[in-house]
């Protein structure tokens, strides 16, 4: 193995007594963490627990206020930045991957570590291509054409390319690899491939800090677990010695509860009716939602469930069919029109379409509640702060300062705001696209409670989710979409993860030609 033995005899990373404050708020208090070489070490905790801050300190993005940080035997100066930690062998793969669409895999990988240059300062393309090929081979992409554009790759391969970029400088350089929520945006069918990738990375010798909120991944792929709560070290334990239930209790305390869909069937008046709706992505979809109804929508990648949500919210043009809201025609020209008619919408991509970047918590919460914060035609900052404070308290957002910038919050707390901003509205229909993607167990329970409360108040809720566990937990029934068509439905006691898995597998089998058929097609070509 390329790591020298002296470096491997010391931990890949060792943090002792780390302290970090943002103003008067202590984010980390006397936290210890050790990651060994050849080890996958999970870092978990509720939103606001400090796990993101700890990872950023170890990566050099934040500077610690106190404590010691040692990478492969070399102490990191207190005022060190990213350049210093990278020089010591720390690499990070972020949730958004940081890849550049529109350029090749070769350019993306080489851009991370730098092109190899000739004596004249020109790019040495043959040498650069060789090093990129070596990096791709380390992550199992030996057969990937490096001239392919990254935006043409499936998501799991994009993750692998980001990991290859992190390893571009060679195995003798990289000591600590921080993987920050790298499966958060993956469809279920691709998560397994990335977990296999993590195991492959482990064998290369670096220590891996695996930051995640998914307990099943922690149990499957990690060797050791560190749990933070309120900025303090709560537990450090071998993965083999714990259960998922213990992890949930440690992370969430007494906040976590199972939504437990009751199996009831909504019998209220129809709220939303779709009759033969077709768009560029949907094909003859008919659906009825009644008062108190919580209906899930499942399907494989590109099944059309997100398109369904956008159509109801006025973001996709209806080519044929009709919609009724409370018995009246609904044909929203745009999202503003949909909101005015009584449709609330939580988009899948909170960073691009959910939060208002560069704005405060107060502004993000009140954007959908402007009627409550106006004096005549003027916006009242006092009323804004009052409404924001009420919603911050109701949804347990951390930090509690309504003037904090939204981009400073953890992903889970941002999502609480994107969902919770609809809490004071009187909407008839709530459409939530992947409402708990990238959040921890406590935030998930809070969002589930919100969904149930709105249904109990008489609204109809449509939950578009790739998590079958989520659908089984919170919904009363579910429909399955395949290539934009509604193909199956399941409800009551039949709404189980196993039954939904069988539905998706059967849909896949029906859509994929047999080997014999594929052979015939190939011969015709």
TrEMBL record:
User: What InterPro entries does this protein's entry cite?
Assistant: AAA+_ATPase, ABC_carbohydrate_import_ATPase, ABC_transporter-like_ATP-bd, P-loop_NTPase
ABC transporter domain ranges (all copies): 13-255, 251-508
Q: Which GO terms describe its molecular function?
A: ATP binding; ATP hydrolysis activity
Any keyword ATP-binding?
A: yes
Question: Which keywords does this chain's UniProt record carry?
Answer: ATP-binding, Nucleotide-binding, Repeat, Sugar transport, Transport
Q: Which domain of life is it from?
A: Bacteria
Listed name of the protein: Sugar ABC transporter ATP-binding protein
**Taxonomic lineage of the native organism:** Bacteria, Pseudomonadati, Pseudomonadota, Alphaproteobacteria, Hyphomicrobiales
